[in-house]
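stage 2 :: seqdesign
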């Protein structure tokens, strides 16, 4: 998805981010507006491997906030499709108990959008 990107000031990546949804872009704008350093999809966590070590399932959270040591995942999907993402979050927490991660659901995004007057249409 090709989205018009602003000149981010708090972004900590080396390549321009390629957001998967307008909701991710709007989240990045809020982080940037408040000067919160962030990176987009900087790490992929292996959730399952086969006996040969091949990755069967992995999860790449949308954002990493280095000053908070916190990963943030955005989901603006219909609630009926969120089950799979919740399962991956549980697996990540089980396999990497020291990793801090927060999942923002559609309702969370809608509240933020209302407060900040954003367009988060997915």
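stage 2 :: out
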């Amino acid at each position: 998805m090709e989205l018009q990107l602003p000149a981010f000031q708090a972004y900590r990546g080396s390549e321009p981010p390629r957001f998967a949804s307008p909701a991710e872009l709007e989240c990045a704008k809020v982080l940037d507006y408040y000067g919160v350093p962030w990176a987009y999809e900087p790490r992929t966590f292996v959730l399952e491997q086969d006996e040969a070590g091949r990755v069967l399932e992995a999860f790449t959270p949308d954002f990493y906030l280095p000053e908070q040591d916190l990963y943030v995942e955005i989901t603006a999907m219909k609630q009926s499709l969120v089950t799979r993402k919740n399962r991956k979050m549980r697996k990540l927490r089980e396999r990497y108990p020291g990793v801090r991660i927060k999942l923002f659901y559609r309702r969370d995004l809608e509240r933020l959008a209302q407060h900040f007057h954003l367009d988060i249409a997915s």
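stage 3 :: structure notes
- The beta strands are 39-40, 45-49, 55-59, 63-65, 70-74, 101-104.
- The chain has a mean pLDDT of 86.
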